[in-house]
Prior knowledge:
Blueprint: H1 7-10, H2 21-43, E1 59-66, E2 69-71, E3 74-78, E4 82-89, E5 102-106, E6 111-115, E7 119-127, E8 131-136, E9 150-156
Parallel strand pairs: 1-4, 3-9
Antiparallel strand pairs: 1-2, 4-7, 5-6, 8-9
Amino acid sequence: MSKGRTSKQRAGHRNRPQFSRRSRALWFGLAAVVVLGGAVFLASAPFRPPAATSPAASASQQVLVSMAGFEPSRLQARAGQDVALTFVNADSQFHVDGGGWHQFRIEALNIDVRIAPKSQKTVNLGSLPAGNYEFYCDICCGGKENPSMRGVLEVRG
């Protein structure tokens, strides 16, 4: 027989510290507050205003380009501010007219950007002077003469 050991100790159980019912409730409550606080913070993200940017920050816009034209076809920027455009070309290389390639051309500013099929390309045009600048794609779909393959970049002073 074993000396002074209980049946639980003989069965291999060790003594574990026991938390009182009150301390367990306190820990559970604390964990619930942390989890709910995190959930509220994440859920409110779309409703918070964006972080303030300095006037010198780059104005970035996304432009979808396809055989249907530019979307949007009217772009706006501020004079003296860097203009960054991200072109997204969803057309495939199997298109018979131009092989899916597109172009963003502004003759007045000597800008000529070519966008490969099924790709995305970000271009910083730099700081532009005020004015209205016509842009177009002359690679496919009737080219420069097709009204859907044209647009205007409006740079305001």
